[in-house]
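Ticket 4471: requesting a sanity check on a complex prediction with WNU. Repro inputs:
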Amino acid sequence: MRTTQARHEEYFSFLRSVSLLQELPEEKLARIVDCLEVDYFEKGEYIIREGEEGNTFFIIAKGEVIVTQSTEGFAEPQEIKTLGVGDYFGEKALISEDVRSANIICSENDTQCLVVDRDNFIQMVGTYEELQVYLKEYVKELSRSDERRNSA
Ligand code: WNU
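Returned structure tokens:
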């Protein structure tokens, strides 16, 4: 059996490899590892639904997801991108204090996501100015690309 210690080290070094978290101080990263949950998804499952309330931030540890969004002039939500290991999502609802702005659908069996809840996310971002600025900019950019795409 894998010990708690081994699991801690595994997630710690994985999170260190995520570009967003590269500059986080060691103790902050360790705290995130302590309060992480791991969620498992199968192909076709919705991880996030557009329009729903959301209180969690996700980092993909294994597998792949697609991002789709309802778009003016189309009956079905349109695919806008694919995300894989080391990518993250779900920050927008937390930062803009809004409902989920896109669907996240699992596209590979046995996809694993590390899940951080709102309070821990706010702690992680709030205590780190550069991260906050970076994410806020990124979220603004997402809203701009939504407008360009005519998302409904
Ligand atoms: C996009 N428009 C919108 C992605 C992930 C992280 C970053 C892009 Cl920093 P949420 C739905 C989530 C949303 C984003 C993600 O979908 N998303 C997008 C877009 O063009 N959302 N509105 N591209 S992938 C991605 C940048 O994380 O957060 O909580 O839920 O609204």
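Notes from triage: The radius of gyration is 16 Å. Leaving this open until the requester confirms.
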